[in-house]
Amino acid sequence: MGLRDLAYGLYERRLTASLHSSAASVPRHVGVILDGNRRWAKSVGASSREGHQRGADKIVDLLAWCDEAGVEVVTLWLLSTDNLARPEAELTALLRIIEGVVTDLARPQNPWTLNVVGALDLLPSETARVLKEAAEGTGGRPGVLVNVAICYGGRREIADAVRSMLQAHAAAGTSLEEVAELLDVEHIAEHLYTRGQPDPDLVIRTSGEQRLGGFLLWQSAHSEFYFCDAYWPDFRRVDFLRALRAYSARQRRYGA
User: In degrees rounded to 5, what are phi and psi of residue 33?
Assistant: First the structure.
């Protein structure tokens, strides 16, 4: 072990001790925008596919860190609706990697419950089938609940929620005028992809970009945000602990 690794190890232990010794609460729900795979690949002379695969391999580490910290729900943004416009060869390779990582996370030896969210109808039918079947066998596991956001866009989610709500009322014979009278925030929230879950307390974005890009637009109204300069494949446990430390130091005002 080099001096740099030793120093990081000591720093990690100090961060962990400070979090455990404080009375600050751990975020129940953490959303993560896994950004920077292609830029990481370019910086090391690798292909985009290698960058995406390296980023996929990092997910297991993150979920283990969340389990250790006591986080209950994690939402991972793996593919946006905008990503569907990427060149066909890159998109096909990326979809195969996503199929692989979701299948691996769903293996019986892993403790996580998977919930695939997004506009899956826009994906190739075989990809959608693989993702759904992988997640179906993970219910009730003791680890973190993992929302895997694939072909996801915040505006699309809200539109889908309103559409689902209107369809439910139409099936019950409710008139449009009656729906307008009943409509409120809670009615829409009941039809979101993450319905029944706590909203994210903390949203982390890697790669230095300081924007949400449409991630959990509805649910993140009162979230705390942490922007990390590291590209996602380089994201370390110490970076995760720094995000938790920053969260614990903030006084949440919930829009006040």
Answer: -95, 105
